[in-house]
Amino acid sequence: MKRGTVGMVEALFSGSVRRQAGGRLTIATPGPGFTEFTDAVAAFVRDSDVSDGIVTVFCRHTSASLTIQENADPDVQADLMTALDGFAPRHAAYVHGAEGPDDMPAHIRTMVTDATLSIPVVDGRLALGTWQGVYLIEHRDRAHRREIVLVVVGT
């Protein structure tokens, strides 16, 4: 951090009460695909009493990932899964295969998507666009329980 940056941050929050909250979610996935959990993140932010700030959403797995994506038309998710299947096919000649043919493609898909999301919080609400939702993407072939860590910081 550059010298003086901390002072700017303190000035930004001067006169305001700084708040921070942390939590965890467990998301059950049915197998490969998108599981939306926007409402759970929004509820966490609402319960935190942070009015303006940022929420960080972190997936604690290397074979599942996070994304912000359209939540209006499920065809978008189907097409995205088709694209990921083409990018990292399940039965390619991977060296790593200790956990089955879906393991290495899952790691590749996680690498090109996200393990962490940062979402602005404005007036106590997620500052998402009209058609945006927060999703966990399951990259493995069977159902899993995935742990998500949440931290919100702000005023």
TrEMBL record:
It comes from the Bacteria. It holds the Pfam family YjbQ. Transmembrane segments: none annotated. Gene3D superfamilies: YjbQ-like. PANTHER family: UNCHARACTERIZED PROTEIN YJBQ-RELATED, UPF0047 PROTEIN C4A8.02C. Belongs to the UPF0047 family. This is Secondary thiamine-phosphate synthase enzyme.
